[in-house]
Every structure is written in structure tokens, then in C-alpha cells.
Amino acid sequence: MMVTEEIQLMLNDYFDVIYTQELTKFDQVFHPGSVLYTSQDNNVVVRPIAEYREIVKGRKSPQELGSPRKDEVLMIDVLSDEIAFAKVRLRLNENVMVDYLNLLKVDGKWTIAAKFYHRAETIK
């Protein structure tokens, strides 16, 4: 299997995690040392993965809320056999998010090492 195909499979799992918020799959997609970053309205937020996991655990999933699902891979850039970047867009309830995902292949498996995300628009 080509590197981009492996990454695409992992990104499909990531999209599933965002939609269903299944924590078992969450733990497989995100590296345990992963960190999330965003900046909205001049507020920089740096969130360790454990903190983000608790947020996900405590909220209803888009699937539970009956929200439509729309996700797409905009770009995959392979730096090496073990490092890559992906740009994705997805719907999270009423928000359209654009994520830059820093990916590492650890023990033969692609994971998200860092996530930079931005709310691109809100759908009413």
C-alpha cells in the first residue's frame, strides 16, 4: 500500500472520530502526546490531547444530534515514510472546520501528532 493510501485510511478514521466521537478509535487516531492549537478572535488556545479527549467525552456527537456529515481531504503532503501533513475540511454540527494535521507513523501506524484547526464558517 502506498503512503498516501495509508494516510487516507487514517484520515477516514479521523473523520469517523469527529462524527461519532468514539473514544476507542479516538485513542488510535491521536498520538498520546498530541497537542491541538487554534486562534480565534486573537485568543490562542493550546490544548493537550487529554484535555481535548475529556471535551469529546463530555459532549454529544454530531451523529447523536443528527447533524449532517461532510468531510474531505484537501491535501496530503508526504515529507518522509514516517512524517506527513494533511489539510482537511469537515462539518462539526453547525461549524465548518479546516484542520492542518501533522502526522507521524509510529509502530507502523499513522497518528495525529498535532492539530491546527480553524472554524472557517458557521452554518445556520
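The above is record 1. Record 2 follows with the same two-line structure.
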Amino acid sequence: MSGVSLSSAWLAVWISRVSDSLQTMTAEFERRHGFPPGTNQVRSANPDDQAAARALAERDLASADLVTLYDNIGDIAWADVGNGYFVDPVPDVLLRLKEYGAVGDGTGDEARGLVIEPFPTSR
């Protein structure tokens, strides 16, 4: 998406497509693997998530696209996709920023940002 900003309309279509795919994947999961699937969902943002996304934007530490993502997506949990993928809710991100602060990006004293790290599937 080089040069193109993330849009709410695109995210709505993406959420629908991914949710359909996750439903298809989990429908046969237990029969194929012998145990029930974990949480595999994209949760749409609720008003609290959207307020937190605005608070993140005010911190001026996140790109406009990340704020747009959090304004539309509350969190992502794909426990059974690959090694597992998770995007924490923005209120959790704000809490970590409050507790630990922003991190430097190594390019100078003024360059600060968020760290998005992978989590193990045993989360």
C-alpha cells in the first residue's frame, strides 16, 4: 500500500473477508486436529477502543494508518493461524506506554515510537 493511506472502508471489507476465512478454518479444526481451536477472531472496535485510538493519536507516536486500524479493529487473535498472530487492544498499548514510555528508534533523541512485538502461541 505504498503511498496509499489505510481507509475505514477497506478495513471493513478486510474484517469481513478474514472473519469468513477464520470461520471456515475453525469449522473443521477439531475434527482435523483432535482438539478445539483457540480464539481466532478480528474484533471490531467499540467506542472505548475508538476513544483510546484518539488518545494514541494525541500522543503523536503512531502513524495515521495505525490509528485508523485501531479506530476500526479492537484486537486480533489468530491462535491457530501459522504460529499465532495477536494485536493487542489499544487501551493495553496506552497502558504500556504509560508504564514504560516510548522507545527510541536509534536515529536520534527526538525519534520515538511504539514497539510491536510478536507473541508466542501459548499466550
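Strands lie at 40-44, 73-78, 85-87, 103-104, 112-113.
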